[in-house]
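Postdoc handover notes: sequence design on the structure in folder B. Input tokens:
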């Protein structure tokens, strides 16, 4: 039988999806809470080599921390958050612990680490940040990206943790790293280059 709720050990959820080589623009005409890519209860996704511009909110939105092992790489993202500025071109939440075996082969609520790497992201239109890890988002490696504009390069809040932010270039930002409502446990901000506006 199918295990309901937070148990994903049977592997019946989407896994190993590839979103590659797409040109997406002018979304959000009818659906305002839309993104180029939205993920919920899926894992091991590869979002690579896409160009996204002109959207009302985040270009990429992860709704939960299910499973992990996702990679967001070599994408060009700009002109997002044109109708709201309360997040950035990338946005995630992680409000429910899911049980999978993806991290190390044993049942765990700790997902496999996700990678956001080698992207070119312009957080214009008064984006609050380039990478917004909200509400318990955890186990992200954000490295070797170029981020321009946005109030913050990275923001993590409300219980977010275990985020590695390394070797990125943050150009013309108000702050390089911002945390709210938590102590930033097990998160690292290392070897980044910040150019303030």
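Designed sequence:
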């Amino acid at each position: 039988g199918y295990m309901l709720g937070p148990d994903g050990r049977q592997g019946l959820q989407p896994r190993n999806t590839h979103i590659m080589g797409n040109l997406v623009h002018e979304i959000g005409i009818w659906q305002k809470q839309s993104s180029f890519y939205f993920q919920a209860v899926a894992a091991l996704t590869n979002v690579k080599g896409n160009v996204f511009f002109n959207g009302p909110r985040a270009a990429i939105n992860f709704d939960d921390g299910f499973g992990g092992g996702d990679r967001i790489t070599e994408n060009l993202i700009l002109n997002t958050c044109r109708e709201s500025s309360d997040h950035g071109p990338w946005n995630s939440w992680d409000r429910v612990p899911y049980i999978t075996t993806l991290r190390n082969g044993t049942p765990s609520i700790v997902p496999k680490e996700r990678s956001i790497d080698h992207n070119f992201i312009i957080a214009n239109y008064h984006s609050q940040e380039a990478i917004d890890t909200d509400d318990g988002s955890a186990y992200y490696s954000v490295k070797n990206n170029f981020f321009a504009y946005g109030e913050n390069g990275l923001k993590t809040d409300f219980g977010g943790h275990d985020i590695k932010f390394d070797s990125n270039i943050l150009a013309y930002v108000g702050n390089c790293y911002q945390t709210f409502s938590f102590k930033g446990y097990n998160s690292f901000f290392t070897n980044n280059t910040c150019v303030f506006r």
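Context for whoever picks this up: The mean pLDDT is 90. Don't rerun without checking with the PI first.
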